[in-house]
Design a protein that fits this description.
Oligomer: single chain
Structural class: mainly alpha
Number of domains: 1
Helix content: 55-70%
Largest sheet: 2 strands, antiparallel
Number of helices: 5
Length: 157
């Protein structure tokens, strides 16, 4: 059984990417919160599939649950050990430096407007939500491969 694509899942993926883009560019907490809501809904959907599904679908759902919940628990227990904040900091533009301009014998210091610290908080929250989805996707992929390996007939050496 391969991965099935449909227009509804393609549209759902596009909405997720649009919300993520808004969360990374806007300094409003609502976008990061929306990503977390989507992540929680995906975890609940995977839990439902793990309970009521069968075969490879169930294996993928269990893998998604294991990967996503492992990262959620790590974020809750030890957020400093998760590199998401450092990655966001590395990808963010550096703060602008002050420069001096001499004007009629006096020194005037101009400092460009710095990025809002609130924007950094929103970016880290959004990155954590995206990381949970990616961890779930990785878990789903690994368990699907394990499931297929277990279903393959044994070969005599």
């Amino acid at each position: 059984m391969g991965i099935r694509f449909s227009m509804k899942w393609l549209l759902a993926g596009m909405v997720y990417v649009a919300v993520a883009a808004a969360a990374f560019t806007q300094a409003e907490r609502g976008w990061g919160d929306a990503l977390w809501v989507i992540s929680h809904l995906a975890i609940c959907y995977a839990a439902g599939l793990a309970i009521y599904g069968a075969g490879e679908r169930r294996a993928r759902a269990l893998g998604f649950l294991m990967g996503a919940l492992a990262l959620v628990i790590t974020l809750e227990v030890s957020p400093d050990r998760v590199p998401v904040g450092r990655i966001v900091g590395a990808l963010s533009p550096p703060p602008p430096k002050a420069f001096r301009v001499r004007d009629s014998g006096t020194v005037t210091i101009y400092q460009p407007k710095r990025a809002s610290p609130e924007l950094e908080v929103v970016r880290v929250r959004a990155a954590n939500a995206v990381a949970v989805m990616l961890a779930g996707a990785a878990g789903s992929l690994v368990t699907a491969l394990a499931y297929r390996n277990c279903q393959a007939p044994l070969r005599d050496s």
